[in-house]
Amino acid sequence: MTPRATPDHHPTQSRDRWRLPTWWRRLHGHAPPVPESSPEPADPSRTGAAEAAGAPENSPQEDTATTLWRIRTTVRDEPGTLAALCGALAGHRVDILSLQTHPLAEGTVDEFLLRAPAVVPADELKRAIAAGGGSDTWIERADAHDLVDAPTRVLTLATRTALDGAELPLALRQLLGRCTLHSLPATSLGGRPLQDAPPVEGVLEETVMRLRDPSGGALVIERPHLPFTPTEFARARALVELDARLGPRLPHRRDVLTLPEGNEVTVRRADTRDLDAARAMHQRCSATTLAQRYHGPVGDADRYLDHLLSPRFGRTLAAYTASGRLVALGHLLWDGDETEVALIVEDAWQGRGIGGELLRRLVAMAAETGGACVYAVTQSANTGMVAAMRALGLPLDYQIEQGTLVVTAQLAPVSQVPAAPAPRSGR
User: Fold this and answer.
1) Between 20 and 30 A from 276 (CA), which of 30, 167, 205, 236?
2) How many angstroms separate the CA atoms of 389 and 407, rounded?
């Protein structure tokens, strides 16, 4: 199924523009004027729509507390349906802050951002919407971040994607709300090609999107609690197409760190263009170091690098010496709704603070994306990794799973993540 993208409709363009409630007309100055023969009522809660919806009368004290809600509901695409729905909400003194419409083959999905009196529960809002003609209603709490209108949010996400190829998975998740995104590589570690690769135009199947990843493989996005609309599918495809046109790219920032003994290393973002340097570092690492990092046969270590260095699966930081030798890698890996951190430092450079510096930066990146926690999978004998996690100064949970230690750090707001000493930066 390849739906055709349809731009958002303004609510006054396709449905009964002359019967919108008076509060809507006051909010939008471009709405039709109120005829002089029909003066505005003093209180929308006294209108016939309010009485029909059975709105309660609240005291002045109750008016001071409000709640933000995000609501989706399906209505018939007929004149007057939006007016009836808005009237039913107005009867509960609900303030509609924004509205998007998502046309379907039959009917329309209306997405509202509402501010409602705190005394009005979600179930009551659902009943009002049903009385106004809405069906298949979905509702959840919203916050101040949702106040940004859709065009602004999409342009911001497009800008972030244009500057950094690793932003595409995060941008898709923020664009589509609560969803799970899986990046499937073009080939398995054993070299088998991806089965059922999606076509170039992608596939939309109710609660699942399958898009072709420009870097190879597939992007699978799932949202079981709420079907995707053709409009959302078109927006997601546009972000993926932007990424494909721009090709591989990373931010150019480089930080020069001075180690305690006086040596300098440069920390920068890495991707698959660093494969040769990473393989060379593996050759210089001991079997113990490789086993602590990859938890498997040492001979398989190089096979993981294509996956680990791909920006689709997370972000990678690399530490290079002044002579251009790669001595450490730090990985931040998207794992569904969770985030994994992992480190490998060449034996001769361990114990100098490089791993701890990479870890602090990775955790700060995770906090910027809105993640609640990060976890590291290691062995209890890997005292360096455990010490680096403890040095973060964040709440930690420890769990042993099949002989493997999993350390989870609960993230503070980004402003509270412990900062590293200010490095000298260069370009």
Assistant:
1) 167
2) 8
pTM value?
0.59
Q: What pLDDT is recorded for position 383?
A: 85
Spatial CA neighbour of 63 closest among 99, 27, 92: 92
Determine the residue type at 423.
Answer: P
Question: Which residues of the chain register pLDDT less than 70?
Answer: 1-63, 188-191, 194, 336-337, 412-427
Looking only at the bridges linking them, the beta strands covering 180-184 and 203-205 are unpaired
Nearest Cα residue to 257 out of 361, 392, 388: 361
The Cα–Cα gap between 343 and 355 comes to 7
**Burial of 59 (C-beta count, 10 Å sphere; 0-12/13-18/19+):** exposed
* Tens digit of each residue's pLDDT (9 = 90 or more) over 20-68: 333 223 233 333 333 333 344 444 443 444 444 444 555 555 457 899 9
Positive or negative, the Cα torsion across 272, 274, 280, 283?
A: negative
Position 148: which residue type?
V
CA separation, residue 109 to residues 44, 132, 310, 391, 412 (Å)? 25, 14, 36, 49, 36
Instruction: Determine contact, residues 73/135, Cβ cutoff 8 Å.
Output: yes
At 19 the pLDDT is 33
Phi, psi (rounded to 5 degrees) for 407:
-110, 120
Cα distance between residue 282 and residue 329, in whole Å: 11
Q: Where are the beta strands (DSSP E) in 19-134?
A: 66-75, 95-103, 108-117
Phi, psi (degrees; rounded to nearest 5) at 146: -75, -10
Sheet holding 338-345, edge to edge: 396-401, 404-410, 373-378, 338-345, 326-335, 314-321, 264-270, 254-258, 424-426
